[in-house]
Amino acid sequence: MESAAETVAEASEAADSPPGTGPGASQARCRPRRRVLIGSLAGCLVLGGVLLCLPGEGADRTAPAPAPGAQAQAAVRTGVAAALPDLAVLIGEREARVRAHPKDARSWAVLGAAYVEQGRRTADTAAHYPKAERALRTSLSVRPARNTEALVGLAALANARRDFPAARSWGEAARKAAPRRWTAYPQLIDAYTGLGEHKKAKAALDRLLELRSGPAVLARAAAVYRDRGWREDAAAALSDAAAGAVSPAERAAYLERAGQLAWERGDREAALRHFQEAVRLDPDQRAAQAGQGRAQAALGRTSEALSAYQVALAKQPLPQYALELGELYESLGMAQAARVQYDLLRERVREEEAGGVDGQLLLGRFEADHGDPAVAVRRLGALWRRGPAIEVADALGWALHRSGRHEEGLRYAVIATDRAHDGTVRSAPYMYHRGMIERQLRRDGAARRHLAEALRINPYFSPLHARTARTALVALGEPSMAKVPKFS
């Protein structure tokens, strides 16, 4: 039985077939054999009737599952999660194929996409992303025209590296080459979002929804809905995506995102259930493992939280996990253990940079809170000039505040939280940052409002900063009645 992703991939191949090789040509060649086929069909029906009468034959027979390599190939060609063991099989098959057939452009493109996915899942970007780029560029050199698979693969690689200008260029080239090939649009959505081009991201989603339906499209829609503050719509889309997923790895990826949505709205129990189910379905789903640590820490299950983070870091050593674990240690008064994680964060960012990954946003956030805020301002200012994304506005505003430039910081905090500036993400950290800057500027009413909103969105948003938000809110006290006008 073919998966839905395989069907899409085969339909795309048919759309790219040269003249005289598509379905119409095949039908024309088959007309002289129509009488023979009718006779054969009649014979088959008679034989089928006999077989149905045989007891026990075919009663419990089901179609065999796709081979691991085929399943992974269908996944990577349509931009969905693939299981790590299946990816390893696919990579081995495609490496053997291109050694024997170095002019096979499609195999080079599939191999490149598989390297991107393996690098993302293992966080070994220095090993896999350069190989992915070589494979994808080789595919383009072998077939420069109408090679949308290689163009989409290069867009995916650029997004994984957080090189959003390059991702936009590759994605737009893929769209121009084949406007009705839906696989370019998810990469364009990610690129436009990373550059702060939210109207273009929404337009790309609208076009994607016209061209295609299914779990992968629903998951992309959920990301856009989340960024626009439509949490309920995002949660519903992810629930439908998980229900329609083809493989356990794909379903686990959607459940992890659903867990993250639940976490962002402060629902610890629901988040933990989603994360646990994702890990049960796919034990290599390390983002869900780190999510378990986040939720368990908020539930007061500290030992389990530390263990979950440590397992996630051992298998997928992302610097973001090191930052979260370090802040958890710091909240527990374990300063030395926190420093170990912060050192690991710096080391991992350097290693990722060897694979072409831009780690400036994470480093800027880290420096603002745990290092040199002036360095954070320089890093984040350069990033803002490249692409004014909402997450960069929030980080830059906070870094400016931490370096003593509160008025400047507030301008960026407003961009991150004000709907008039596209700040539609309902984020507890963003509201916290704005509230703390306003408190420093003695704008007590606004500070009280935004700190309370942060804790309303997610009372557990950070083991360090949620505590600070509560303390600051108590210090601000109740609104003064002295300035309330009296009416006779």
**Uncertain spans, ≥5 residues at pLDDT below 50?**
1-63, 481-488
Distance between the termini: 79 Å
Report strand %: under 5%
Q: What proportion of the residues is helical, as a percent range?
A: over 70%
Radius of gyration: 26 Å
| Number of strand segments | 0
Please provide the ordered H/E string of secondary-structure elements: HHHHHHHHHHHHHHHHHHHHHHHHHH
Number of helices: 26
Class by alpha and beta content: mainly alpha
Largest sheet: none
What is the typical, i.e. mean, pLDDT? 87
The dominant shape is: globular
Structural write-up:
The chain has about 500 residues and is an all-alpha fold. It has 26 helices and no strands. Helix 25 crosses helix 26 (about 465-475). The longest helix has 20 residues, at about 35-55. The radius of gyration is 26 Å and the shape is globular.
What layout of secondary structure does this protein have?
Elements lengths: L3 H12 L7 H8 L3 H20 L14 H10 L6 H17 L4 H18 L2 H18 L5 H13 L3 H14 L6 H11 L3 H14 L3 H13 L3 H14 L3 H17 L3 H14 L4 H13 L3 H14 L3 H13 L3 H20 L5 H11 L2 H14 L3 H13 L3 H12 L10 H13 L3 H14 L7 H12 L12
Keywords: Membrane, TPR repeat, Transmembrane, Transmembrane helix
InterPro entries: TPR-like_helical_dom_sf, TPR_rpt
Organism: Streptomyces bobili
